[in-house]
Amino acid sequence: MSLAIPQATGDPQSIGDELPLAALWTPQGRGAVATIRLRADVRRWPAPAALPFQAANGKPLSVQPRGRVIFGRWGGGNDPAEDVVVCVVDEQTVEIHCHGGEAAAARILRDCALAGYRVAAWPEMARVAYGPVEAELLEALAQATTLRTAAILLEQSNGLLRAALEAIESDGDLKSLEGRIDGLLHWADFGAHLTRPWKVVLAGRPNVGKSSLINALLGYTRSIVFDQPGTTRDVVTATTAVDGWPIEFSDTAGLRAGSEPLEAAGIERARRALAEADLAIVLIDRSVPATEDDRVLLAALPEARVVAHKCDLPPWDGPDAWEGELARGWPRVSSKTGEGVDALIREISARLVPEVPPAGTPVPVTLRQISLLRRAVQAVKRGDLSACRQSLGEMLR
C-alpha cells in the first residue's frame, strides 16, 4: 500500500495561521517512527480536541504542558487503537509520533482531515510556519547527500542567511548594498551545488579508457569495460563524494567522426553532457599515435583538463607521438595500476571547489534566492533602491 497524501494546492503564500494544516514530517516509506506535524491557531480552531487521541494521563491536549512527551492511544471504535506519542510544541504546533511505515501515518492523516485539517506537503507547512527562506533551506537540507554539505546548509537554516538578508534590506546606502549583495552572489554557484552535484564528464575517442578511468575514480565497477572501440552508446553516470562534495561522474560515448547512426546518437548525448559539465576531462591514449579526432576534441574543449592515460603502457614513439604534448603538463594516469588516480581526484576537487566559505558566511542556496539577489543588485546599479528592497522583500516574505 502506498501512502496517498493530498498535495498542496493554491498559492502557499496566501495560507494564514487561521487554516489548520497537517503534514507528514518524516520521509515516506519504512522507518521505526513516523512524525506528523499539525499547525493551527488554537485561539480560532479547537481542532486538536476533535482528534481521536486519548492521553494516558486522562488530560486533554489543551491543558498538557508545552514540550512534554505525552503517551496515549489514537483511534478506537471500529478501528483498532494505535499507540502514539504526542507533544504540544507550542500554541500552534502539535507533533504526533506513531509507528513507522505507511499504514499508521496514512490513518492518522485521514483522521486529521476528518477533524478539519488540510493535509499538505511538509515544505508548504514550513513556509507557513517559518517563512520562504527557512522553508527553502529546510528542503535543501533534506536533499543534502554528504555531511559536509549538510553542515553548511544547517548553518544557513539556523538563521545565518535570513539575518544577512534582513541586514541588507535595511541598508539604505547604495554603494554598501551593492558590495553586500555581491558578497552573497560570490557564493551563488557554490551554494547551488550543495544540493546539485558538480558534474564531471570524461571524453575522448573510442577505446581511450574512459570506462576504466571512471571505475578507478569511483573505486568500484560502474561502467562495463570492453576492448572493442565504440561500445558505449549512452551516458553512464555515477555519483560519489570527493572531500565531502557530491560529484557526478559521466562516462560518455567515444567521440570520433564517421560513426554509424546508433553510435552517432551516443556521441550527440556525449556532446550535450559536455556542454552541461562543470569540468570536462579529455583522455589521451599516449600508447598510440595522435589522431585527427584527438586534435579536434582538444580544440573544441580548450578549458578541459587533459589526462595522458594508459601510462602503464610504453608511449608511442613513432610518427604523431604525444611526447611533445606531454610537456604541457598533462598528468600521467593509469587506471590499471592506479598511478596518478589519487592526484587526479585531488585536482578534480580543487578545480570544482577552489574556495570554501569560512564558517559563519551566509550563502544563497536556491535558484530563486540567487535570481532575486541578481535582480536586487541590478536595481542597485540603476540607483533604484525601492526595486532592490522589493526583490529582497519577495525573498524574505
Q: How many structurally independent domains?
A: 3
Quote the CATH topology of the largest domain. Rossmann fold
Give the number of helices. 13
Proportion in β-strands: 15-25%
CATH class term of the largest domain: Alpha Beta
Low-confidence segments: 1-17, 222-233, 260-264
The shape is flat
> Structural class of the helix and strand makeup?
alpha/beta
The CATH superfamily of the largest domain is P-loop containing nucleotide triphosphate hydrolases
Radius of gyration: 28 Å
Major sheet details: 7 strands, mixed
CATH architecture label of the largest domain: 3-Layer(aba) Sandwich
**How confident overall, as mean pLDDT?**
84
Relative helix content: 25-40%
- The topology string of helices and strands comes to EEEEEEHEHHHHHEHEEHEHEHEHHH
The tally of strands reads: 13
Strand order of the largest sheet: 3-4-5-6-2-1-7
From the N-terminal CA to the C-terminal CA, the straight-line distance is 38 Å
Written account of the structure:
- The chain is α/β, with parallel strands linked by helices and 397 residues long.
- The protein folds into 3 domains: 12-129, Probable tRNA modification gtpase trme, domain 1 (Gyrase A, domain 2, 2-Layer Sandwich), CATH 3.30.1360; 132-187 and 357-396, Four Helix Bundle (Hemerythrin (Met), subunit A) (Up-down Bundle); 198-352, Rossmann fold (3-Layer(aba) Sandwich), CATH 3.40.50.300.
- The chain contains 13 helices and 13 strands.
- It has helices at 103-114, 122-130, 132-143, 147-169, 174-185, 188-192, 210-218, 261-276, 292-300, 323-326, 341-352, 367-381, 385-396, and strands at residues 21-24, 33-39, 53-55, 69-74, 82-90, 93-99, 118-119, 198-203, 236-242, 245-251, 279-285, 305-309, 332-333.
- It has a 7-stranded mixed sheet, sandwiched between helices. Strands 9-10-8-11-12-13 form a 6-stranded mixed sheet, sandwiched between helices.
- Helix 3 (132-143) packs antiparallel against helix 4.
- It is flat and about 90 Å long.
- The chain starts with 20 loop residues before the first strand and ends with a helix.
- Mean pLDDT is 84; it is low at 1-17, 222-233 and 260-264.
